[in-house]
Amino acid sequence: MLLGSYRYNKWVGSKGRRVRWVCSQKTAGCKAKIYTFDDKSLFTVSRFGKPVLVLNGYRYNKASGKDGQQPIFTTSNRGNPMIQIGGCNFSLTKNGGGLKRRWVCSKWGSTGCRATITTLDDVVLKSNLNHMH
């Protein structure tokens, strides 16, 4: 498999729908890996050992929450989806029918806070946790 200018070899232990590919430079110490599911989604590990998602030619690094805190996926009192990070709540704004979702601070309407989170299948892709309140 060729991704960008990097070559990956199929790992011999791969069976079923999930296939692991390892960097051809593994013997030189490269830790990069790619996981394919039904030859569609690409989940990789960077050469530094960090998880990466490759979707439509773009690379997304897994982000953690504020001060390393992980997001808590929950529902509001009215039953709407919500994320909690560091004592702040985020409400779902755009769903678009896909797996990629955009969340805004729940105080956006009252204080004009511009803190946002973008998720893909419940994995935080990027976040702006600079609150204005």
Description:
The chain is mainly beta and 133 residues long. It has two domains: 2-61, no CATH class; 66-128, N-terminal domain of TfIIb, CATH 2.20.25. The chain is 3% helix and 49% strand. The chain is built from one helix and 13 strands. It has one helix at residues 108-111; strands spanning 2-3, 6-10, 18-23, 33-37, 41-45, 51-55, 58-61, 72-75, 81-85, 88-94, 100-105, 116-120, 123-128. The longest helix has 4 residues, at 108-111. Keywords: Metal-binding, Zinc, Zinc-finger. This is FLYWCH-type domain-containing protein.
Name the descriptors.
six-stranded antiparallel beta sheet, seven-stranded antiparallel beta sheet, mainly beta, N-terminal domain of TfIIb, 49% strand, 1 helix, 2 domains, 133 residues
What's this model, at a glance?
The protein has 133 residues and is mainly β. Helix content is 3%, strand content 49%.
The radius of gyration is: 18 Å
N-end to C-end Cα span: 48 Å
Approximate helicity band: under 10%
Low-confidence stretches: none
Write the layout of secondary structure elements.
Blueprint: E1 2-3, E2 6-10, E3 18-23, E4 33-37, E5 41-45, E6 51-55, E7 58-61, E8 72-75, E9 81-85, E10 88-94, E11 100-105, H1 108-111, E12 116-120, E13 123-128
